[in-house]
Amino acid sequence: MKEKEVILTVDGLKMLEEELEELKTVKRREVAERIKQAIGFGDISENSEYEDAKNEQAFIEGRILTLEKMLRNARIIDDESIATDVVSIGSTVLLKDLEYGDQFEYTIVGSVEADPGANKISNESPVGKAILGMTKGNVVEVSVPAGQLKYQILDILR
Predict the structure, then answer these.
(1) Which CATH class is domain 6-77?
(2) The CATH number of 79-157 is which of 3.10.50.30, 3.50.50.60, 3.40.50.300, 3.90.226.10?
(3) Which of 80, 83, 105, 75 has the alpha carbon at shortest distance from 92?
(4) What is the pTM of this model?
(5) Which residues pair with 51 in a beta bridge?
(6) Where does the chain hold its CATH 1.10.287.180 domain(s)?
């Protein structure tokens, strides 16, 4: 089975590499020290500190494996490859809600980097899917749980 390609912007790549470095250096050492201290408390069969530390260690090691796999399968989208005539991953898009007149600016990113609170939406999200491949001026309809939304693409930026 082919592993899923992970689409990242340059910033997203940097973010994952920094998280991986932090886990491998700082967090691994911290949890190893916690385990060592917990063992020092004596009987580990009824030692909640030991159990917590072992669970955290398992989580950290699992996250390290996940990040390494993501980075192995990464396809980087650099600024120069982002078109401004058509919506693609990496594009920043200015949308107008045709029902309410509100304007939104979203950057289309891969699912790993999605952060709606920071206006970064996944290419796999309903809005992301609907606007990919569209051009300035296009009107798109997006099916969401609450019904249909209509957006007009006002601008496409890098």
Answers:
(1) mainly alpha
(2) 3.10.50.30
(3) 105
(4) 0.80
(5) none
(6) 6-77
